[in-house]
User: Fold these one by one.
Assistant:
Number 1:
Amino acid sequence: MIFASDNWAGASDKVMAALTTAARAGGRAYGGDDLSRGVEERLSALFEREVAVFFVGTGTAANTLGVSHFARPGGVVLCHRHAHINTDEAGGIEALGGCKLAGIDGRDGKYTADALAARLEQFPPGSVHHGQPVLASISQLTELGTVYTADEIAAIATIARNRGMAIHMDGARFAGAAAHLGVAPADLTWRAGVDVLSLGGTKTGCIAAEAVVFFDPARAADFAYRRQRTGHGFSKAWFIAAQFTAWLDDGHWLDLARHANAMGARLAAAIRSSGRARLAVEPAANEIFAILPEDVAARLRAEGAVFHPWSVETLAPEDRPSDGETLVRLITSFQTTAEAVDEFADRLAA
Amino acid sequence: MIFASDNWAGASDKVMAALTTAARAGGRAYGGDDLSRGVEERLSALFEREVAVFFVGTGTAANTLGVSHFARPGGVVLCHRHAHINTDEAGGIEALGGCKLAGIDGRDGKYTADALAARLEQFPPGSVHHGQPVLASISQLTELGTVYTADEIAAIATIARNRGMAIHMDGARFAGAAAHLGVAPADLTWRAGVDVLSLGGTKTGCIAAEAVVFFDPARAADFAYRRQRTGHGFSKAWFIAAQFTAWLDDGHWLDLARHANAMGARLAAAIRSSGRARLAVEPAANEIFAILPEDVAARLRAEGAVFHPWSVETLAPEDRPSDGETLVRLITSFQTTAEAVDEFADRLAA
Amino acid sequence: MIFASDNWAGASDKVMAALTTAARAGGRAYGGDDLSRGVEERLSALFEREVAVFFVGTGTAANTLGVSHFARPGGVVLCHRHAHINTDEAGGIEALGGCKLAGIDGRDGKYTADALAARLEQFPPGSVHHGQPVLASISQLTELGTVYTADEIAAIATIARNRGMAIHMDGARFAGAAAHLGVAPADLTWRAGVDVLSLGGTKTGCIAAEAVVFFDPARAADFAYRRQRTGHGFSKAWFIAAQFTAWLDDGHWLDLARHANAMGARLAAAIRSSGRARLAVEPAANEIFAILPEDVAARLRAEGAVFHPWSVETLAPEDRPSDGETLVRLITSFQTTAEAVDEFADRLAA
Amino acid sequence: MIFASDNWAGASDKVMAALTTAARAGGRAYGGDDLSRGVEERLSALFEREVAVFFVGTGTAANTLGVSHFARPGGVVLCHRHAHINTDEAGGIEALGGCKLAGIDGRDGKYTADALAARLEQFPPGSVHHGQPVLASISQLTELGTVYTADEIAAIATIARNRGMAIHMDGARFAGAAAHLGVAPADLTWRAGVDVLSLGGTKTGCIAAEAVVFFDPARAADFAYRRQRTGHGFSKAWFIAAQFTAWLDDGHWLDLARHANAMGARLAAAIRSSGRARLAVEPAANEIFAILPEDVAARLRAEGAVFHPWSVETLAPEDRPSDGETLVRLITSFQTTAEAVDEFADRLAA
């Protein structure tokens, strides 16, 4: 009953097999190998256009470098108030990009185009004091397990582009979002206006496989230097390429995500019908936010369930727990079994 | 006949087996797992004192973060003019630590305590204009494949410490140096005055396994934040821990290094006796710098040998190639076979 | 009728006379001159303890360098949501200190110790993801022209210190606050827990005279390097020292502030009694925030009054203008005449 | 007999008069005033093209911000080994621009186009490890008091431009160089290929008046944000504008420089004919480098002469002092009197 995070999971057998094969051979260093080039081709095919791909080892690296690439002096990055880049990356964009992060409020982990437009009013064009907005970032999945539709993304991107801003997508759980929405990856990204994507494999069955994907390769100029000087250029880059190769083969990435999502739905259904807990947010994929009586949460933990408490600040005031209740996050993964979910359901309802 | 670099090699079977086992299980994220804790214990045992260990993914990350940790305003980092941190890391320490790098001349890739003392005279104490020396870095192996003895390290460290500086060792090939010298790791590091070590497994049989090792854990305060905000904190940290576990088990790391060194010695002997080439530097381990007639180098490459040209700037003027000659670097690894070396030797002498 | 800002004013005659005298003589560079040393002594006397003083040229420099001096990796700086450092310095602390700024809500431009404590809960100790709070900053005067009492400062400082944080005061208008409160400077600063003060002369009668004042000189170590590498170390430092000398002589600084405050009070009284406008915030010194009918504001501007519109976001929702009204900021200075205020009052009431 | 530095001098009476007048009036903040706009027009006229002008308070600020404006990831800035930006600015460009500084050797404080080309070979195009050259900087006057001719500048700029680099000129003593060469400022700058100039008034009769001058205003985009976030945007910008106005009026800047240069020539002549000392470098303007017997230097100091010792590293080996000799720097200024020079000459020859 481990629902702590999808980064507590191991790696899929197919991913490991590909990695083991690659490790026997080795290859040219720093991405000069065939596997690395192959992944760029596969992602170009997947996204239906030529993309520039840069491997890094963590999602924080992908976000921090991908966003910082669009930094300018006095730069301001707009994102949801509770975006991972704003609350969980130890100030990476501030430190590496020298940017200010400006949070936007919004229910269920999402912000709207209107909310972005309103926030931008606080940064009047040309004011050297306030700084200049350079990028809007959205998370897909969001930090509350919800998704943006392609139309919602396009609306946000239009507002941003009108101010000359770039659009970044934190896709640490992009696979889960794509599996849920059933929409072509291109429609969720560049066709909706996204310039740069942090594409995460780690939370969906890889060990450490993240990529910064630029939808216009011309805008990736100098990014290789940016990556290298921050120590994110792996000499044995085939190690990430091998993982991505297996991950992308035959839709393995979507299969992994679909399993996690199915387990998430199973868990959500159990909570809905439990009579003892409720969903704080309607889930789209593998992140479930639930409100439980504190004693029930304590009992479940004592019985072996592992899940994190979550800040009630992330919810709108009207959605927050009452006295005696607690907000928790439960995450399923490609390794989560139906048995584990059912055991949790049984114990919850007991 | 691949002698391009030890980062062109794959990973050892033992390392991969450990990684595969770990990947089946997964574990607590961000280093909370048992394997991660275990590696810290093993390294404490290896170094004969309690050490603080921080995994990162690349040697550039280890160097950049480890050195930047000692940065102060106006900080100056002293190192050999051709140190990897000065010539091959795309300005990482400048960018992340805000420090100036001040190169020191020295034959065979090494600098002396006297040369350090002379260089320090250009940074008079208290001069806000010149900046303040904060750290001296040495590479073990050096970038020319030579080693510092424990006494040489201690002499450098004494000069540095008298100016209040920290001492960093770039140990991307520490295993090769330790195997060659046959000296206890503690004697090569903290007993000689080293404060922080970039310990590299990647070039000696791992996929991507590097660690910043602080010999005084109290001096590692805040380093976890420094690592996290630069995107170097792996969620599935067991992925590095598993590699290091196998690497350290039963002296596997030294066995891997000894093999690479033996192949290096075999290659060096072949060059010495070839009648067609000569060693530019007397090698200690697995990096061989040779001077060949240009036509011989071209022929060997045409016959399938892979090796890099090297800048003659790295040699003292009296050691440089004559007209018609070229300086090349050949590196052996744990995967190099005697057959490959012998084939090279035969073709060289032909 | 110039009420745009106190930085639209010139410089006091006494300040200019001192500067002219100093400019005839010149002096040792980089603060080695007698005037510079003298200012440090005077400020030590004024603050009733030995302080370390570093001149810089702007308030943004003082704030950015003074706060960044306490930066640590993953550092978070807490301040009022509308603090100058958060909204008007183009991301200086983010860029130079690599810190995240976390805004705190609070009425009338002030935040409370309780609000600070609540905000700190979002940064749990030891969480490398969220980062670590390193400093709390307060503005005295605040950006809404109000003041903190010594007790309020002490309460905030206690909360901050319990988390190991430093306390910074943005004293761009410290003179106005001190003149209003009639409290010893020491009571408003170090005795209440302040570690570092940005002391501003520019808005109170100088040309460009700002200082970073450390109340514990030992904590100023390396600050001279920090200042120099950012280009804030003036070679002719006597140019700032001469201004501060005249400014501090015979309480000139307080006289200048008292005049500005008196003009502010006269202006506030006029607004209160006008029947056409109201105060948005009860003023303490020379910053007056008023709510006017839009047509009245337009008429006043057409008649020659100069004042800035102000963001209604800075007010609590219940304090904001109604439809057809506008929020404006009016600032008086040492140069403001009673005649100008009275003319404004007459035109407002007309 | 103060020959310590031209930044020990005061300010010219005309400059102070203009400043005093401006200080009575005050004006719109942050460069919105008439004086500030006027200086931009005057400099456009002086340089015979439209330029973009940004005031800052120190030469280090001008250099650091002006050079950093051209920074890119992995950026390398090439300059003379002993350039002020490399040896006297506490690592400002490293810290603010994240660039590596790569020094070039060259006699008499100058480097040649050929030397630049040779140094660039160490940064092969496209190598992410070595980084990418982004800018070449030259000092005019150089740090050894010599000048580059327009042709020499053009030759350097051609090499730099062929690698896509920008060209910066450190003109802390540009007035002295222009006065000596008698060449139009345009010929020494943009017509020879210079993109950005640090134009210094401080060392030639101002208190604190420096400007970053972009010869193509389009390339100055975002510079205002860069200046603001580092605290270099003065609210009372007229304070610098007033100084520059007087400085530029009727060629006052060249008159000030010519006097300093004449005093430098008088001092040089005295040294040449003294029989006790010799010039280490043939001077062009107001910086005189002389080699004296150590006992003579000591005696002169005891008799009241003030001058700095200088590092012999700045000289070519064949130009260095012999045993018992010392290298010193003597600088004249607009305030230096012929009497002071003659007294020094008499005492030297005594």
Number 2:
Amino acid sequence: MFRHVKQMQYTVRVAGPNPGLANLLLEQFGGPQGELAAACRYFTQGLGDEDPGRKDMLLDIATEELSHLEIIGSLVGMLNKGAKGDLAEGVEEEAELYRSLTNGGNGSHTTALLYGGGPALTNSAGVPWTAAYIDTIGEVTADLRSNIAAEARAKIIYERLINVTDDPGVKDALGFLMTREVAHQISFEKALYAIRDNFPPGKLPPIEQYAHTYYNMSEGGDIRGSWNSDENFDYVADPQPAVDGGDGLSKVTLSDKQNTHVENMAIRTQSDPTINPLTGTDLGKGIPKEQQ
Amino acid sequence: MFRHVKQMQYTVRVAGPNPGLANLLLEQFGGPQGELAAACRYFTQGLGDEDPGRKDMLLDIATEELSHLEIIGSLVGMLNKGAKGDLAEGVEEEAELYRSLTNGGNGSHTTALLYGGGPALTNSAGVPWTAAYIDTIGEVTADLRSNIAAEARAKIIYERLINVTDDPGVKDALGFLMTREVAHQISFEKALYAIRDNFPPGKLPPIEQYAHTYYNMSEGGDIRGSWNSDENFDYVADPQPAVDGGDGLSKVTLSDKQNTHVENMAIRTQSDPTINPLTGTDLGKGIPKEQQ
Amino acid sequence: MFRHVKQMQYTVRVAGPNPGLANLLLEQFGGPQGELAAACRYFTQGLGDEDPGRKDMLLDIATEELSHLEIIGSLVGMLNKGAKGDLAEGVEEEAELYRSLTNGGNGSHTTALLYGGGPALTNSAGVPWTAAYIDTIGEVTADLRSNIAAEARAKIIYERLINVTDDPGVKDALGFLMTREVAHQISFEKALYAIRDNFPPGKLPPIEQYAHTYYNMSEGGDIRGSWNSDENFDYVADPQPAVDGGDGLSKVTLSDKQNTHVENMAIRTQSDPTINPLTGTDLGKGIPKEQQ
Amino acid sequence: MFRHVKQMQYTVRVAGPNPGLANLLLEQFGGPQGELAAACRYFTQGLGDEDPGRKDMLLDIATEELSHLEIIGSLVGMLNKGAKGDLAEGVEEEAELYRSLTNGGNGSHTTALLYGGGPALTNSAGVPWTAAYIDTIGEVTADLRSNIAAEARAKIIYERLINVTDDPGVKDALGFLMTREVAHQISFEKALYAIRDNFPPGKLPPIEQYAHTYYNMSEGGDIRGSWNSDENFDYVADPQPAVDGGDGLSKVTLSDKQNTHVENMAIRTQSDPTINPLTGTDLGKGIPKEQQ
Amino acid sequence: MFRHVKQMQYTVRVAGPNPGLANLLLEQFGGPQGELAAACRYFTQGLGDEDPGRKDMLLDIATEELSHLEIIGSLVGMLNKGAKGDLAEGVEEEAELYRSLTNGGNGSHTTALLYGGGPALTNSAGVPWTAAYIDTIGEVTADLRSNIAAEARAKIIYERLINVTDDPGVKDALGFLMTREVAHQISFEKALYAIRDNFPPGKLPPIEQYAHTYYNMSEGGDIRGSWNSDENFDYVADPQPAVDGGDGLSKVTLSDKQNTHVENMAIRTQSDPTINPLTGTDLGKGIPKEQQ
Amino acid sequence: MFRHVKQMQYTVRVAGPNPGLANLLLEQFGGPQGELAAACRYFTQGLGDEDPGRKDMLLDIATEELSHLEIIGSLVGMLNKGAKGDLAEGVEEEAELYRSLTNGGNGSHTTALLYGGGPALTNSAGVPWTAAYIDTIGEVTADLRSNIAAEARAKIIYERLINVTDDPGVKDALGFLMTREVAHQISFEKALYAIRDNFPPGKLPPIEQYAHTYYNMSEGGDIRGSWNSDENFDYVADPQPAVDGGDGLSKVTLSDKQNTHVENMAIRTQSDPTINPLTGTDLGKGIPKEQQ
């Protein structure tokens, strides 16, 4: 269950109305790296996680992100307040207000005011928030990596927003929010490293033959680094199609008999790196080894 | 520039038509963790990256993901082939086909066939692919973390798809694709660790006072772990609002004079952890220290 | 600021695994009438409302809807638990599980399991939640009417979900949630009626001449009711185009002089119902009365 | 069947080209509160309604909204006409036009011109119209409430658009459209009140014990009003979790036997307010009363 | 202005309830090739077109498509009618109904019933209609080609729907609707061919040097046809990068002086096919010819 | 399989930074008529096509469109380069940059910079790319018509972009890209005309009685042209509802017996134009001819 406390987690101070800045801040209210996205990401993971400690952490942080959503939404409302205040005065002032803002042009900025100046669940370009931003998939080592990356991205957006304003109260609050993303990133990293065998994620082993290969798919000069060095990878300078030794085309060929065969092999230990551990296919020939 | 080679990177073999499985495989064609998403993520990063080695890696892997997109799409087409083949025979057969597939019910599965049985850029529930899935933000340490997480998620989806089928040719190809995600994850991790000072991402330092705090926002028993241990964090068992020492409300208070002041402080070294390095605000009092 | 309490607002009991029902319940997790939509609707209104009592009510109810989101999400997780539990056993069982669920076909149901069986922010057809569902516009009498309607719709969806299941624990929890929508609807109606002059919404008066007209736009027999009776409305049996007395076409005709004129009239009292109070246009002739 | 009349319902006059205003008006062409949304809302309800009078009203108003869509679309075209006219002159003029509009910047405004200056089915920020805006659910008392709210919202958007322009012809037409929303709102209210027992919507009764409770979920001072007064509600100042008397956790507990039991109880009259009428659960104890 | 006639353009007869078929028909109600998409495509074009004959044709056909939308929506309602009728009986029957439909599984089909069984603006997989389906761009030769293609696609979807059902009344109505798409396609082709110089669309001429080249981008055997024959095209068997003769990289090189120069050349006649008519660049050398 | 060549297909030259223009160019990166849409349209068709020559053409052109996507993306990056370069200098410069760009206002333009200045998969208004733009349906004559239309639209957008800039290098590259759309349009037209019996698309014949009728649905003066002339069409000046001779209402009437009857008739030759060839219904009477 959730409770709400009428004081916010951080005091919101603004120097004065600034609808343009209000609109930019929407990026962290209803944008892809924003606080609603963060809260929803961790909340859905927390509900699905059966480890009590990790579930707790996920719900703690989800709850804090909701508190941050409140801070950002309040900043938006304060920065639009003059605008909204003027709206309450009378139609003449409202007209003046809109005209001064639109400057003969238009933008998502004006749309936000058309909607009343409160915080809207859009990004700074006016695009409605979508759950397509949420990448929870219910496997803990993948989800924690997603969280680490999400916190890193959110930190950067806060940094850019801090650089785009000179209202000290807004900078102050954004600095707090930016810092909390860093703290959360550390928590998620600690939680990931607390899991043994966190790589590769999941239960199925990779196929040895392809797991350490780097295909240089771009012609025009090789550039080598730790990400494709021979120490870490088999570097293939001129990749050819059909790495499985087949013909690289599509066909209907396998019998029902092999079907059963594969079932039995699915969990066997992979002792021969030239055999696909999932199907027993000889990777050099494209057909099951037993049939050669 | 891209070139296409008519042979695929991996030979596609299917045991026979299976439109239901074809539909599930759409998850990796037009779904959030699928190959188009992967290719677009790395391609947009690669175009924007100015480090030649990393740019190269990103475009290599983007190109390989496009080749994987072709493999998945060809599998979808092959598995729907009976369906599509029957469609070519005549209207009676087509009617029979559809009726046998719908079983008096319906689903995104049937929609896929309504669209002709070729690979459609939707996930397995029929939701069209959207660039909202792409989380590129143009800061390399954040983007590489996003890539590591994306590869982990894709690996898991392949693993689940492998478990849901017993067609050995499909399992075989999916095993290859799953393995390549693991290899790419390693490349991205190597590339991240090749960057000095990759944490925290970006240029602005966190505010020391909030960077190592864990707020226990969930009442009902504390559970501790490395993600909130006192060794790593200041653990706040009963968080109160207004951590900045203010009143937790929103207000218009700051003068223009402070404004300039803040500008000058933005890049100074943070020597006093109770001062917000961005604005010079004394974090215990909610006002700039110099004014006390 | 928000706090989380580890116990839920209502105890969640399920008779056993039921992934099909879990999927249907997603309608109230990530669907248009669901709990996230409700929480976001009231939260955005509450942040923007300056009346302390109404702001309080909106945030109270938003917070309760978050607590309901937790209940629905926990039901989804419990109903998928067998599925998820089996997933943990090993690949063979996972394969069996998926195959039994898909029945050779497919649907958004299977997609949900592909995503790990936790609660996903989609509706029951797999469509991701979007802020396009949120109709907050920042004018209180319109927003309260939107809330009344939203609660009515949510009540109906819960009723249909109750009818679709026979798991008594699920029925029980859904009955609680359905009832709370009714209670919230009453609160919003009370709040609306506590506002004087709540109709018509906003500040500009309607143009008298068109405010009580009913145009019978459908040929083929008149049906009359209170919604178009002569007592309430001027009933126009055979509506003609150009009700303003013009020619019904589009043209560039008005001078700059009229422009200023209109400005001055915008707030005058509407004493003559044949005059457009916004522009002074004589509604019978399509030109300003002063110019006749 | 629909027919089109070449004259519009209202004459469209504009003082001159004004692409910025054209763009704002798109809000009521392809925006959430716009005329396409209105027409689609009532048309889908009308097709599904079996009461001949109400069906008629819904299709009458849907048809009028299509006529309004034509008015708004024609205004947009007229206001862009200079732009479009210039486009026809030659490439030099087109270039000049675009450059003058973009002012070195950009916005959804320019995008609209890139698309040719005709009315596009987007809102004023360039977001494409989506049926996610349509909240028809096929239960008449809920749908009529949705319509009342939708008309109230549309009235407000027209009011804001009237205030943002000083083109008297545009103000005039918007005044007509705004007024018609008021008239439609009255019709929908009359139609709702013509239905006996229109509250609560649907067929299932609420659970008495929770139907008149107000939970004060926000700590920090109580504010009371008619929406949570003791006269209307049982006011719970400090809500606790597990209002059903359970433990607030999730569990698998109920037997198959109860399953049948619940079926039989589903339609019984609710004589004891401490019993959940849907399941017979004793609300104070969290288990069926018969089992105590 | 629009009028509605209570009789439909075509009589709707169904053999009996069939919710599964109802759901498939939604493809032409709220799907990408459906009647709302058609009506919106032609309506937006018609409002923007200044040729009176073509405007008339576009609005005639838009109006007919609205009448078709009514036919499809009525078919959906009739086919769900048993379902909806049963819903009115009582909760027991409703429960029975849902259970029989879901078969322990789920799908967009069930979602449609959750929404009340009326026609919803989604496709057959439950995806909400979006104006992203509308490709109007305000240039008549492009728009007419879009319309020809749209009618062809709609014809095919109707054909597939006819094949998927054996309800003769539904087949009959779908046959009418399919035929009308053919008639509309002919009208749009006639209208396109009535425009002189309809190819290439627009005003700017293509650059001669690249306008008749076919790049064989796929290695692995050439296949020639009229679409890449030497008669029609310069066939480039092994395309190289940097076809402009440059180095294929990106750079900042051009001076302000060239800038002005280009302005003056923009409308000159293209007399030399090796010169880019837009900029005067010598296409063989990557720099303006005058500077060589 | 795809390969990447590090040189681009066309050299990208820009005169200097121009973030506003960069933003406009996004229209062809992530907009509906852009290069990703083109590549995806032809790639999905190519994978599904079984004619080897046409498949080859589709994949050739898809591959070239990917190469164009690279060109546009590189232009965007170059034009934002100053911005991005300044971002790397330090926080003060970044702040200055943002402030100069936002000018106290905002727009999708600023959002693009918030995302780091690299190419984002949105259109120029910031709307994320969606596969709803892709109209592939897997029937070759419809798909080729869709391609012809898509190339025509893309040509127009390039033309408008050329007119909106005066950077000669950008104009040059856009001229190349515009020209290639023309060349592709020719290829698709050649491929369409190479198919015998390409009209009407698909296999089912239209119903003769309705295939050559033009319904004049718009009252207010007839305008005739080749698209509705008596030579091509039966022109119906005053269309009546129920063109099938029925009553234009919806009803349940047909027996199971007719059901079988229809099945047998589905493929018969249409010798009598007053009979629906799909169902044998006498079109003048609304019932099967055999029953009269």
Number 3:
Amino acid sequence: MKTKSFADMECSIARTLEHVGSWWSLLIIRDVMMGRRRFKQIEASLGIAKNTLASRLNQLVDGGILTRVPSSDGSRYEEYSLTEKGRELAPVMIALSQWGDKWVAHPGGPPFAFVDELTGEELSQVWPRRDDGEKVKLDELGLRPLNQDPDHNPKEQKR
Amino acid sequence: MKTKSFADMECSIARTLEHVGSWWSLLIIRDVMMGRRRFKQIEASLGIAKNTLASRLNQLVDGGILTRVPSSDGSRYEEYSLTEKGRELAPVMIALSQWGDKWVAHPGGPPFAFVDELTGEELSQVWPRRDDGEKVKLDELGLRPLNQDPDHNPKEQKR
């Protein structure tokens, strides 16, 4: 399991993983996206220990991904809601889900599909595209180093 | 940390997380995508313990995400290469990276951007879309339960 912090790494993938927290955190975010907004609902869905869930929820609230809101039905139970920052993890969740549907689906088939609620249509595959909307083939994907602070990496400057 | 297996869960997100393995595994996949194909290169990039790295690499090979290939320069070191299954994790990696660029970027700015190698252009944001290519707004995303009983006709629904 995780043995050091990724937070000092520059890479945004590493920083996202560090910030989001753990596999459990992604499943908690999934549950809230699916409408399970209360501690007990998430606990029942994940079969997770109370103290683990409490600590993951605190981390997600501290990180600004979830926020605590009063219950929607006036009861005394607080609920969890996704912030904009949390909602914008949807492309990550959908990409994970679609990959799983294709490569490691449950023998009974996947239990749900993401749809556009306006049309009821299933989403197309989340895929890298150019600005004009054209899909990019996997073997045509590349990485370009970005100019950071010029003092940041003097060794590179000298080349 | 992970305290139970997600593999018996039906959800494809949970199944993907279980199958891929851990945060480290995603960073290993990122490294191989970026051209770090040898054990020593990945070890140096991640600062990961040798035994942890060896076990994650074995898991990724067993899972059919990475494959071992002879070195590209004829030396005796084996290299790791992504299978098609592994390459198709690119949308997940890019979605993680773009979220990180926006929400938790390194103070010096992100170190690289994903581009279309044909044009050199940065990719647009990986985003859920309908079949016609139109982006779906986050508040218009929905989930539809799928009928998992094969005797039922799922195609009754009109498009």
